[in-house]
Write a structure and sequence with these properties.
The protein has 551 residues and is α/β, with parallel strands linked by helices. The protein contains 15 helices and 21 strands. The chain folds into three domains: 20-117 and 193-470, Glycosidases (TIM Barrel); 124-178, Oligo-1,6-glucosidase, domain 2 (Alpha-Beta Complex); 484-550, Immunoglobulin-like, CATH 2.60.40.1180. Bound molecules: 1-deoxynojirimycin.
Length: 551
């Protein structure tokens, strides 16, 4: 049996921990889909605020909110029309202020998303640039250029949008503008001082309101290679993250983050932080964003994209720790977010056509492995319920621009954005106030049994498993922050490592094979992702199982 351990979260109002972010467990809230306070079918800030006790009880340290700013929602809020305003569909600035205060009162830190690579095509600067036409100075805040070909009918270069199709759109006066994402998301020109000044001011606006940090969207994209050179071939999107491109991970971005670090450091009290969403070709390139005077953390996408495979995981863990230790930054670990297929489904093999029970078993084991590693971990809303990807969404309810631009090729992001089930027997399962009320994406009927209420108190549920895991992680002196692990000898397909902290040593064992294995018992069982069989000096780990030991 798994063992129940309780530990209180940090006392509300207690003194801020120094460098709290080094081992923080940070929970991503996707505001559209977390909780709907007003019953319109769309999540909102008052809904989130009302559900914060769930996050306190879960035992996370911080909450990161995806964008809720004024936006026409061409890319679910990653197209920002006003960086200082809350979109009415999510609430008001007063609601944002209240949410920060309530989170702080519960001992939770709050991270907002900042979107500096591009804005919305309804942002005032872009509207002005369209109105004033070619040659107007305000156009220089974006990448407006004449086209190629006799009549300028061809885009200025061969870059492709991440969402598919050309990265350029032509406006009525004949010029083209750059958008690495949807046409409704024009890229800023970070060679322009006004862009720098604007984002300094936006950072300060939210810091003044009390936010504890930022998740930096497309942190690797702000600076483009000078002259915007052609790449020379198509299919760029398929190769993203695997090859160098002149619009991502350019050396010039680092000066921006040095500037931002100085701004973050101006604020007293608990440290304000920034985490980079930087899809770089290697974890070593990601570490460059975390040099001592730059950002604090970067998402470990190499880890997220690694299969459930012992050798591959061991290699990426080693590479991550080495790269991050070299710049004295904490490693981060993440398995799911609002852009990828949920890991309970990824690990089932294939996009939803795999074995769901195997997917969930591996997902729980993967979570326990992730939470055992030194550094900080990111959770995506709903993974604590073991939610799978929703693969059966009808096309007419989908909203992801990637689905439409890519003709379905990469249209998987709505399936991980389906509203959370909280309670009750009828959809939307407590997501909104009314039984049978609306939700912007439909939930499967089977989610009744996966709701927070349905899982609470059931010792075998994934929710209670997450609660125990986070409580043990908080309580055990060898878990959380740290730099290193020591690999222990183990059979093929098994990972075993030791961590030693002040006053305690800890061992994590993972059976990634498809069969139960009898392994030496290294200490006292703390927690297991599945029932383990006791034995004399040995313990049987079922297939796809992680165990934590005090050793
Ligand atoms: C990354 C965000 O996570 C994703 O949802 C968005 O579409 C792109 N950046 C563009 O902002």
């Amino acid at each position: 049996m798994t063992q129940n351990v309780t530990a209180a979260p940090a006392a509300p109002g207690s003194a801020p921990a120094p460098q709290w972010w080094r081992d923080a467990v940070i929970y991503q809230v996707y505001p559209r889909s977390f909780a709907d306070g007003n019953g319109d079918g769309m999540g909102d800030l008052p809904g989130i605020a009302a559900r914060l006790p769930h996050l306190r009880d879960l035992g996370v340290d911080a909450v990161w909110l995806s964008p809720f700013y004024a936006s026409p929602q061409a890319d679910a809020g990653y197209d920002v029309a006003d960086y200082r305003a809350v979109d009415p569909m999510f609430g008001t600035l007063t609601d944002a202020d209240a949410l920060i205060r309530e989170a702080h009162a519960l001992g939770l830190r709050v991270i907002f998303d900042i979107v500096p690579n591009h804005c919305s095509d309804r942002h005032e600067w872009f509207l002005q640039a369209l109105r004033e036409g070619p040659g107007a100075p305000v156009r220089d805040r974006f990448h407006f250029l004449p086209g190629k070909g006799p009549d300028g009918e061809l885009p200025p270069n061969d870059w492709e949008s991440v969402f598919g199709g050309p990265a350029w759109t032509r406006v009525e006066d004949g010029e083209w503008y750059l958008h690495l994402f949807a046409p409704e998301q024009p890229d800023f020109n970070w060679d322009h001082p006004a862009v720098h000044e604007e984002f300094r001011s936006v950072l300060r606006f939210w810091l003044d309101l009390g936010v504890d940090g930022f998740r930096v969207d497309v942190a690797h994209g702000l600076v483009k290679a000078s002259g915007l050179p052609d790449i020379g071939h198509g299919e760029q999107v398929k190769l993203l993250g695997k090859q160098e491109v002149p619009y991502f991970d350019q050396d010039g971005v680092h000066a921006i983050y040095r500037d931002w670090r100085r701004i973050l450091a101006e604020y007293g009290g608990a440290e304000r932080i920034a985490v980079a969403e930087a899809w770089t070709p290697t974890v070593e390139r990601s570490a460059r964003y975390l040099r001592h005077d730059e950002l604090h953390q970067a998402f470990n996408f190499e880890y997220l994209t690694t299969d459930w495979d012992a050798a591959a995981l061991r290699a990426v863990i080693d590479r991550s720790l080495t790269a991050m230790n070299a710049v004295d930054a904490p490693a981060t670990w993440v398995l799911s977010n609002h852009d990828v297929v949920r890991h309970a489904t990824r690990f089932a093999d294939g996009d939803g056509d795999g074995d769901a029970a195997r997917g969930l078993r591996r997902a729980r084991a993967a979570t326990l492995l992730m939470l055992a590693l030194p550094g900080s971990a990111y959770l995506y809303q709903g993974e604590e319920l073991g939610l799978p990807e929703v693969t059966e969404l009808p096309d007419e309810v989908r909203q992801d621009p990637a689905f439409f631009r890519g003709a379905g090729q990469d249209g998987t992001r709505d399936g991980c954005r389906v509203p959370l089930p909280w309670s009750g027997r009828r959809a939307p399962f407590g997501f909104g106030p009314a039984e049978g009320g609306p939700s912007w994406l439909p939930q499967p009927d089977s989610w009744q049994g996966l709701s927070v209420a349905a899982q609470t108190g059931d010792p075998d549920s994934t929710l209670e498993f997450y609660r125990r895991a986070l409580a043990v992680r908080r309580a055990h002196p060898a878990l959380g922050a740290g730099r290193d692990i020591v690999w222990l000898p183990s059979p093929e397909g098994v990972l075993a490592f030791r961590r030693t902290g002040r006053g305690g040593s800890f061992v994590c064992t993972v059976n990634l094979t498809a069969s139960p294995l009898s392994l030496p018992t290294p200490g006292t069982l703390l927690l297991a992702s599945a029932d383990v069989g006791p034995g004399a000096g040995r313990t049987v780990l079922p297939a796809d199982t992680t165990v934590w030991w005090a050793a």
